[in-house]
Amino acid sequence: MAANTSPRPPTYWFVNAWLGSQDFSEEFINGGFWENRLSENRSAYSAMVQEMAPGDQIALKIGGQRPAFVGAVVRHSWFQTIAIAATGTVIANVGDGIRANVEWTREPEPRVWSFYTNFRLIWKVVPSVSSDPDFQSALVAFAFNHEPQRVYSWLALRDLWRNRAQNREQSGSLRADVDFTQFVWAWFFEDASFKLREFVDPTIRNQSLSAFEGLLGRVTDYDPFTVMASWNRQSFDVDMRRDRAMRVKDALKLRTPLPEHFAGVATVDGNSRFCTVSPNP
User: Which of 105, 132, 151 is the last residue of a domain?
Assistant: First the structure.
């Protein structure tokens, strides 16, 4: 029987900077390595260290807690965070189950990621085989591509953190005037706006014009404001807005479910919002 030669999926490692009560960030970064110095749990993590392969991306993390949306949505309610102090690439595995050599790049300031966290010594992240692929892909993009975390959507639309913010019984902790169910459309709007950033290149926009012709009419170019406004006109009822939003979803190849309603979303004037005058006389 032939051996299984399927390629190893992209694997990312998030490793602690603090071991016990001591911060080893400077030593790890300056020395170009990471190692498990906690003798009492080496056997538990030995296999994971040995699995680190040259070319794997790795991040040095610091766990903690901080208030999320202080004064806006939650008062005095704390959420778990990790701070990314440095990122790098594994360049060699010593093979002892303790140490891997790493080419680190220090962050000017630790960048804080909230909600979806793991405080274990080593966190192995493989989005392609994860039960939480969206969470893990967003974490990888934040850590290694410096993409922002869309914090509001995580808080307002994900049950675990929404319920903690909305229902936690603590004196003075809850903004009773905030009804999170009003904002179920936020995730779709954010995904659409972030996806539109990929079309900043005119060449890419030109290649996608045909996908928008049924939505925007016959156009030679478009901008993100026109696309976002296409399902938010004053004259549209909910069904029409959902139909237009579905066309945008298909054109942008979004995976996010369509909103059931658009309560609280500002609409645009029903008059023409297209430029009808050619810039070339």
Answer: 151
